[in-house]
Amino acid sequence: MRFLWLLIAGLILWQILHKTIIRKNGKVVCRNCGTVEFPKTVSPRNVWVEVILWFSYLIPGVLYTLWCNHQTYDACNKCSSRDIVPLDSPIGRKLAAQQSPIDVTPISEHMGHK
Predict the structure, then answer these.
(1) Which distant-in-sequence residues (6+ apart) come within 8 Å of 25 by Cβ?
(2) Among candidates 108, 38, 107, 45, which has minimal Cα distance to 78?
(3) Which one, of 6, 79, 4, lies nearest residue 36 by Cα?
């Protein structure tokens, strides 16, 4: 019985680490709206359903948790689109370059001073 609990805990820990540490490499570019920032994580998880399943029956709780972790995906922070590209990829760099450039003119030049 102890082995089963360790196996379940290991699977859940692996799912959490895989989704949070391994996949979060950096900023992304949204192909839909052009936003360049860190992605947000979207999950179908309902905490109350998960708690009820865990307390009523062990196996459905484990299955629901694993299913929710498998259905989790990264999305754009602004428009929630799934169509995002890593900023450090060739396509991501190209999309970011097409966005309006940031004004890097010093404030003193904006005020008429040189």
Answers:
(1) 86, 88
(2) 38
(3) 79
Q: Which residues have CB under 8 Å from 100's CB, separation 6+?
A: none
Other CB atoms within 10 A of residue 81 CB:
13
**Single pTM value for the model:** 0.57
Render pLDDT for 79-97 as a digit per residue (tens, 0 to 9). Answer: 989 899 888 888 888 888 8
Sign of torsion over alpha carbons 80, 81, 87, 93: negative
Question: What is the spatial distance between Cα 87 and Cα 95, in angstroms, rounded to a whole number?
Answer: 8
- Name residue 56's amino acid: S
CB 28 within 8 A of CB 92: yes
